[in-house]
Design goal:
Elements lengths: L17 H18 L3 E2 L5 E3 H5 L6 H4 L4 E3 L5 E4 L4 H10 L9 E10 L11 E10 L4 H17 L6 E6 L6 H13 L7 H9 L11 H4 L11 H16 L3 E4 L13 E6 L8 E7 L14 E7 H8 L11 E5 L4 H13 L4 E3 L6 H11 L2 E5 L1 H5 L2 E6 L4 E6 L3 H10 L1 H4 L4 E2 L1
Parallel strand pairs: 1-5, 7-8, 12-13, 12-14
Antiparallel strand pairs: 2-4, 3-4, 5-6, 6-11, 7-9, 9-10, 10-11, 14-15, 15-16, 16-17
The protein binds histidyl-adenosine monophosphate.
């Protein structure tokens, strides 16, 4: 195929059955969010570029990875690289700070980052994210972490291990930053080029460099600089998450790549993805909404990478079968089969009919691949107002009156054992 007509690097076409696994994941995640009392929010997939500049110009996703363009009206726009800044903008613009507190929001959708394409790193990825506004309590941080863990757990990735850290607050972080810069300044010659730049712009990120790992081992520890409030906060989050039966441990090098965090930061990985690849990550960002010309509110949230979740889950998350009923027909009965199909769809039964004029044998073969029930329409039985129904699960076959068909199938699905008596074995 002409390379110019192919999809852009780092993007994917999601084909069935993978597309159904995505969909199943979405429903499952939103169901769990509802259990925790979260509401769904949708924001545009592009924003004015200034919105994302508020995330912090020193972050990779703003500095090097932005998909920005000037539209025909001269407006500078950016495809959203993440959801938190967009939700913060919506929070202020729609006056959501006047809504009852706490405000709990979730979203699901595509994010765009012009990253170097590599395993589990896409230029368009999907995030399920949650943002909780209006509570400073460590219980809010714990609830956010527990919600994300429950999603991971429910898709079949048992016992996710949460790595957590506190990057302190406006009181204690400056003291730590200074100690860190002093420590690294004495070793400037040994640092990689990125770390030399981080020294000026974003010293905390010296800690999560994947190259200079030996140097950080003797670096000052954040925990020695936490103020009493920050210490009590992280201890309480860890107690609550651990107390709910989740694995959680402090990672002194976890700082995360976004500038808006304060206190709590956390990530969860998975053995199948490699140490540097997180399933989800997030933290507290009490100052962000204040940067959108509105009242500042405490907030905490996470973003979960759905492609990574699905890759780690493998085929443990199976899509629902495409159809429950297949209506096969004898020659000349295709219209009747389709009408019967409509009656079954009316009561919510996923039903397929033959559209290719296949022989009955070929239709039955097709039915056996996907459906639980095969209904055979046509011939002498049709004149008696009857159809044959084969149940592949119960391995039975029965004649059923056409007007009773929908009720019969629903009943079989509800209570298969009680109803299987009397059917001839296939
Ligand atoms: P983030 O760590 O940049 O945080 O992204 C969240 C998650 O999205 C990651 O843990 C990862 O699973 C997935 N992800 C990120 N980039 C890619 C990529 N290029 N390809 C595949 N998956 C990716 C945020 O975006 C914050 N907004 C999270 C947050 C919400 N913090 C507070 N509230």
């Amino acid at each position: 195929m002409n390379p110019e007509l192919q999809r852009p690097k780092g993007t994917q076409d999601i084909l069935p059955p993978e597309s159904w696994r995505y969909d199943k994941m979405r429903r499952l995640a939103l169901d769990i969010a509802q259990q925790y009392g979260f509401n769904l929010i949708e924001t545009p997939i592009f924003e004015q570029t200034s919105v994302f500049l508020r995330v912090g110009e020193a972050t990779d996703i703003v500095q090097h990875e932005r998909y920005s363009f000037i539209d025909a009206g001269g407006v500078n726009l950016t495809l959203r690289p993440e959801g938190t800044a967009a939700v913060a903008r919506a929070y202020i613009q729609n006056g959501l700070y006047n809504w009852p507190k706490p405000l709990k929001l979730v979203y699901w959708g595509p994010m765009f980052r012009r990253e170097r394409p590599q395993a589990e790193r896409y230029r368009q990825h999907t995030q399920f994210g949650a943002e909780l506004y209006g509570s400073e309590s460590p219980t809010a941080d714990a609830e956010i972490i527990l919600l994300a863990c429950r999603v991971v757990d429910r898709v079949g990735l048992e016992n996710p291990e949460v790595r957590i850290n506190s990057i302190g607050c406006a009181v204690c972080r400056p003291r730590y930053r200074q100690a860190l810069v002093e420590y690294y300044a004495g070793r400037r010659e040994e640092l990689c080029q990125d770390c030399q730049n981080r020294m000026e712009k974003n010293p905390l990120r010296l800690l999560d460099c994947k190259i200079d790992v030996a140097i950080r081992q003797t670096a000052p520890d954040l925990a020695d600089y936490w103020c009493d409030d920050c210490r009590a906060h992280i201890e309480s989050v860890m107690d609550q998450v651990g107390g709910a039966g989740r694995s959680i441990r402090r990672d002194p090098y976890l700082v995360r790549g976004l500038d808006y965090y304060t206190r709590t930061v956390f990530e969860v990985g998975h053995p199948s993805l490699g140490a540097a690849t997180a399933l989800f990550g997030g933290g507290r960002y009490d100052g962000l909404s204040g940067q959108f010309d509105g009242p500042s509110a405490p907030a905490v949230g996470f973003g979960m990478g759905i492609e990574r979740m699905l890759s780690a889950v493998g085929n443990r998350l199976q899509p629902e079968p495409a159809s429950v009923v297949y209506i096969a027909h004898l020659p000349g009965f295709e219209n009747q089969a389709q009408l019967l199909g409509e009656q079954l769809r009316n009561v919510g039964l996923a039903t397929e009919c033959d559209l290719l004029n296949r022989s009955l044998k070929a239709q039955l073969r097709e039915a056996g691949k996907t459906a639980r029930f095969t209904v055979i329409a046509g011939g002498y039985e049709w004149e008696q107002n009857l159809v044959q129904v084969k149940d592949f699960t119960e391995r039975s076959q029965e004649s059923v009156a056409v007007p009773d068909l929908a009720g019969y199938l629903l009943n079989q699905l509800r209570n298969p054992e009680q109803n299987s008596d009397g059917g001839a074995n296939l």
